[in-house]
Amino acid sequence: GILHEDLRLLLETSMPAKKKKALLGVADPKIGAAILEELGYQCQTGGVVAEILRGIRLHFHALVKGLTAQSASKAQLGLGHSYSRAKVKFNVNRVDNMIIQSISLLDQLDKDINTFSMRVREWYGYHFPELIKIVPENYTYCRLAKFIGNRKELSEESLEGLEEIVMDSAKAQAILEASRSSMGMDISPLDLINIESFSSRVISLSEYRKGLQEYLRSKMSQVAPSLSALIGEVVGARLISHAGSLTNLAKYPASTVQILGAEKALFRTRGNGLKLHEGRLRLELRKTFLVGRAVKGCARLGRAVVESPSLEGFPSQVPTSVFGDKLREQVEERLAFYETGEPPRKNLEVMKEAVVEASEVVAEVKRRQEKKEKKKKKREKRRLEALAAAAEEVEDSVLEPEENDVEPKKKKKKKQQQELEVGSEPEQNGLEEEPLPKKKRKVTVEVAQEEEEEEKKKKKKKKKKARDLEED
């Protein structure tokens, strides 16, 4: 509803106050309403205005002098590029794109790691089939396959290494005993090398997946703290991925958020509606909240959960998880109501408490930021003072040798004056001195003039240095 300053200035300069009754043709009705509200000019938006504007765009190069059709097409292309660039920059600053990519990569890694782990089990199972029953975890099994290698070389000395991998002394002893009485086939060293290299690849993929999950958690805590506090980082990231962006998720109504991830089940003809176990997202929500609870609360769980995404909105300057924590408490109270019958708190009361706590958290964060800025300014001030002191020391060290150079020159001048006085004494005593030849007189005069010029140049240099130091 706020007009841009350029548009306001253009309208005020081109249309004086006397012509407020004149009609303006505007393509967008929102802009027309804003002009009417701010400046009082009547605006018309309709089919005729759209046709006129379309004609102006089509014949714009003929209406403007010096503009050709080719230059107009180039200008349109440049405008399109700049608009797309600005849009991409906006999306880059919004880090929910990184969340969408990381959760997609995480799902793909889960599938690939499961497939590769099954391949390692089948491959190494020919040699040591009993290990599959003792160690069912994929990551641990791959580490053991790489560590054991040939089962016949396993001995009491390797028991300590087995305990480090399995984290259980009983399991390590069972693996050692099973290796001695295994029914597996013998295997060649070349096959063992290939199995170990493939196991190391699966291990590195699993470790990378852990790092990626930590990265996803940190991003979710910055972008959508309330959502991650309520339903977890992974489920919240999947919600953002299904919606397309955090903005879209914040704009969705509760009914749309409830069916995200269960689109296939939605169009089935059987049944009277969606169940909570239909769709991956709904299944993860059930695991998050309903483990060990009565099935009675399943029907209304979605309504309680979908209130949080709309609270995220656009990323705030100070992200806080207060709203998510309060909503999680409210969900727990609603689920406990089906078991104990104790009525939960109203949503208005919970939100009031959340607003108070969030304001306190924001104030605390701002206070810490101010302290950090003050410390940073103090450090910068100390650094500048240290640099100034170092510069003064350098200037003093430069000036000292110059003063030392000036002193011997003064001594030379004094000696010359004394010689002149000595030379003039016999004249005063009445003694005549032999006159100097003309050539020698000229040389002495030229030497004196050169010395005077050198002194003047040195004085000018000193003055320039002093001025430069003062300016610095």
From TrEMBL:
Annotated Basic residues bias: 457-466
Source superkingdom: Eukaryota
Pfam families assigned to the protein according to its UniProt record, in alphabetical order: Nop
Gene Ontology cellular component annotations, sorted alphabetically: box C/D methylation guide snoRNP complex; small-subunit processome
Residue ranges annotated for the Nop domain, each copy included: 223-340
Sequence intervals crossing the membrane: none
Gene: Nop56
Quaternary context: Part of a large pre-ribosomal ribonucleoprotein (RNP) complex, that consists of at least 62 ribosomal proteins, 45 nonribosomal proteins and both pre-rRNA and mature rRNA species. Within this complex directly interacts with TCOF1 in an RNA-independent manner. Core component of box C/D small nucleolar ribonucleoprotein (snoRNP) particles; the core proteins SNU13, NOP56, NOP58 and FBL or FBLL1 assemble stepwise onto the snoRNA. Interacts with NOP1 and NOP58. Interacts with NUFIP1, RUVBL1 and RUVBL2; RUVBL1:RUVBL2 seem to bridge the association of NOP56 with NUFIP1.
SUPFAM superfamilies recorded: Nop domain (SSF89124)
GO MF, one annotated term: snoRNA binding
Name of the featured protein: Nucleolar protein 56
Subcellular location: Nucleus, Nucleolus
Keywords: Nucleus, Ribosome biogenesis
Region (Disordered), start-end ranges: 389-472
PANTHER family in the cross-refs: NUCLEOLAR PROTEIN 5 NUCLEOLAR PROTEIN NOP5 NOP58, NUCLEOLAR PROTEIN 56
SMART domains cross-referenced by the UniProt entry: NOSIC (SM00931)
Reported function: Involved in the early to middle stages of 60S ribosomal subunit biogenesis. Required for the biogenesis of box C/D snoRNAs such U3, U8 and U14 snoRNAs. Part of the small subunit (SSU) processome, first precursor of the small eukaryotic ribosomal subunit. During the assembly of the SSU processome in the nucleolus, many ribosome biogenesis factors, an RNA chaperone and ribosomal proteins associate with the nascent pre-rRNA and work in concert to generate RNA folding, modifications, rearrangements and cleavage as well as targeted degradation of pre-ribosomal RNA by the RNA exosome.
Acidic residues compositional bias, start-end: 392-405
Family, similarity comment: Belongs to the NOP5/NOP56 family.
Gene Ontology biological process terms, A to Z: ribosome biogenesis
